[in-house]
Amino acid sequence: MRESGDAVRLSFNELKDLLRRVFIKVSVNQETAELLADNCAMVERDGPESHGVFRIEGYLNTLKSGWVNGCADPRIEDCGESFIRVDADNGFAQLCLARARPLLLEKVRRSGCAVLMVRGSHHFSALWPDIEPFAQQGLLALTFVAGLSVVAVSGGKTPVFGTNPLAFACPVAGSSPLVFDFATSALSNGDTRIAARAGHLLPDGCGIDKSGQPTNNPEQILNGGALLPFGGHKGAAIILMVEILAAALTGGAFSYQVDFKNHPGAETPKTGQLLIVIDPARGGNHDFAARVAALLNLIRASGENIRIAGDKRLQNRARAEQQGIVITRAVLAQLNGFL
Amino acid sequence: MRESGDAVRLSFNELKDLLRRVFIKVSVNQETAELLADNCAMVERDGPESHGVFRIEGYLNTLKSGWVNGCADPRIEDCGESFIRVDADNGFAQLCLARARPLLLEKVRRSGCAVLMVRGSHHFSALWPDIEPFAQQGLLALTFVAGLSVVAVSGGKTPVFGTNPLAFACPVAGSSPLVFDFATSALSNGDTRIAARAGHLLPDGCGIDKSGQPTNNPEQILNGGALLPFGGHKGAAIILMVEILAAALTGGAFSYQVDFKNHPGAETPKTGQLLIVIDPARGGNHDFAARVAALLNLIRASGENIRIAGDKRLQNRARAEQQGIVITRAVLAQLNGFL
Question: Which Pfam families match (chains A, B) (predicted)?
Fold first, then answer.
């Protein structure tokens, strides 16, 4: 750990170890604490600000409320050559994925594609760490998660969807995989809360107030209003699709069915998560990763300062690997205070 | 056929039979002519205006140019328990799907999910007819197609993507399936051409002119400019994903690789198409369709006059089934002129 002014720089392992001890302090078992700490440290390393360590207080409050099971024992159901269901035992999705990954990989390698359907799971992090490992092994992966009911449709007065993130990952010859991950609402919950905390106004089209009228004020969105889907009526179709894939298809709760009012302090959605994993090389398509690399090069050459989804994250990662993960003294003190 | 003023009303079968004869007239074989006529009549019946009969002249010019094979004999490659590849033999995607559908259904029923990768195929229609039949059989389906290079990224000066449509379909208990289908560009090619023909200006963010500057003029987009992705940077990630799924993953050409300059009159993209089909009931999830119905009811009840993706198409279909498919005398004369 290196100190510089108001900030400290931690190595990945220092941050992960600290977070692991924080989770164990609230009675999360070793297996889950290890996974959540690894996940949270990765997200803090790569940004953005709205996930990572920013979420630790929410994790802890949720665990203390009894809403989520920090010692869950998910049950893997092998439902066919290319189909796995998982009952999360009210635990975190990351544990389900870690437990199911060997069988999922076996199925993809054997049959060419496979799906993993997780239900009754809590997801409180970015999605990219769930699928980047598949791309690092040459596979293409998609994932979808339902959330807390905070997004209304155009003309709607009450929220019906979660922020419903989706993520995509695939290998790129000669470089890091292409991985992107975003909320299918106009804004994520985290970014809405950050804007509210900073007193910033939002662009048009992000949300409505409690009477259903458009608003640019994040406070009004958070206090009885709702976010809107990204991208107009096409984005509205995408967010509906994510809700169906992540909840109805997995057997998990819809975003609107999440009800933690008997667990004061709880913040995590207990819904479901779908993964679709495909082997791009199956059937002799061996130049997949090289062709994706050529496409990305073409896109970068089509103008100046072109940004491709995931670029910022890889820049953050490279900087953190060189200089360490920067957090403020205040945040470090808060984390140590949890021990 | 009933006449009323400037318009005529045809039954579905009357329109389909006329279109079939038009395709056969330009030496398309019976199998493909039947499929294209059925597809085109369905799209005309359900709308929107930018597909359907509006496309017939483009089909015919493309066939006459020798760019597409109207008598193709696609080769189905069984690449694994859940994986099919198809070499389209330079024919239409609809033929590949029709030929591969029995094997695809067999694989989905057996293993729980399957993917179909078509390459070297031409797609010049809406996507929903490709997947609605799966939803009618209780399955969930997704499809993705790459197109002609007409879409630039933000900050780009030259087009790199097709309009890259995606479509989703799933069963809904007690009603027609939920099916939607849209270009992942801000506007489809067809709608851009219709706006240009009508002299309409477009909303902000739809496209750029030939110097890379934003424009609202569809003529400038069509004449050396480019469309933009829908939905800002999130839509840009989606359109990139569709390009990768429909071209790199299938082994088909990227949109930017389509080159028909030696075939004057050609209009169809020769790229690739991906289908992902999943059995929602696999593993005991038998209330999938009922839960989707409940979700759609909740969305409709969340405000007044809420529109859900696909609503308009089903309204058009219901009206056409009652009153016939309305086309103008001029269009009917044009179709008859092709015979």
Answer: Ldh_2
Q: Where are the beta strands (DSSP E) in chain B?
A: 2-4, 7-10, 75-80, 83-87, 113-122, 140-145, 166-172, 175-182, 207-208, 214-215, 226-227, 270-278, 325-328
Which of A43, A111, A84, A71 lies closest to A274, judged by CA?
Answer: A84
Angle between helix axes B56-65 and B12-25 (nearest 10 degrees) is: 20
Contacts of B202 in chain A (CB under 8 A): none
Looking at the structure of chain B, the number of domains it has is 1
Is B218 contained in some domain?
no
Question: For residue A203, is the peptide bond before it cis, meaning its omega torsion is within 30 degrees of 0?
Answer: no
Considering only alpha carbons, which residue of chain B is nearest residue A306?
Answer: B155
User: What is the Cβ-side half-sphere exposure of residue B147, based on CA atoms within 13 angstroms?
Assistant: 29
ipTM surpassing 0.95, yes or no? yes
**Distance (Å, whole) CA A162 – CA A184:** 9
Looking at residue B190, its pLDDT comes to 81
3-class SS at A154? coil
Q: What are phi and psi of B215, to 5 degrees?
A: -145, 155
- The dihedral over CA atoms of A147, A151, A154, A160, expressed in degrees to the nearest 10, equals 60
Q: What is the CA radius of gyration of chain A?
A: 20
**What CATH number has the domain bearing residue B49?**
3.30.1370.60
A304, burial (CB in 10 Å: exposed 0-12, middle 13-18, buried 19+):
exposed
Residue B101 lies in a domain: yes
- A223 falls within a domain: no
Which amino acid is present at B118?
A: V
The dihedral built from the CA positions of residue B181, A298, B159 and B258, taken in this order, carries a sign that is: negative
3-class DSSP state for residue B32? Answer: helix
CA A299 to chain B, closest CA, distance in angstroms equals 6
Residue contact B111–A111, C-beta within 8 A: yes
In chain A the first and final C-alpha atoms are separated, in Å, by 18
Q: Answer yes or no: do B80 and A110 touch at CB < 8 A.
A: yes
pLDDT band at residue B294 under the 50/70/90 scheme: very high
Please give the helix or strand (H or E) that residue A141 lies within, else none. strand A140-145
Question: What would the DSSP string read from start to end of A174-240?
Answer: TEEEEEEEEESBSS-HHHHHHHHHHTPPPPTTSEE-TTS-EE--HHHHHTT-EE-BSSHHHHHHHHH
**Residue found by looking up tokens 């019976």 in the block:** B30
CA nearest to A257 within chain B: B295
Three-class SS of residue B232?
helix
Residue from A238, A274, A300, A313 to probe the interface with B (highest B Cβ count within 10 Å): A238
Tokens of A161: 């969807």
Report the number of secondary-structure helices (H) and strands (E) in chain A.
Answer: 11, 13
pLDDT digit string (tens) for B53-105? 989 999 999 999 999 999 999 999 999 999 999 999 999 999 999 999 999 99
Residue with tokens 């905390």: A197
Q: Assess whether pLDDT exceeds 90 at residue A48.
A: no
- Count of other CB atoms within 10 angstroms of residue A34: 18
Residue-range definition of the domain harbouring residue B319: 2-185+229-297+309-337
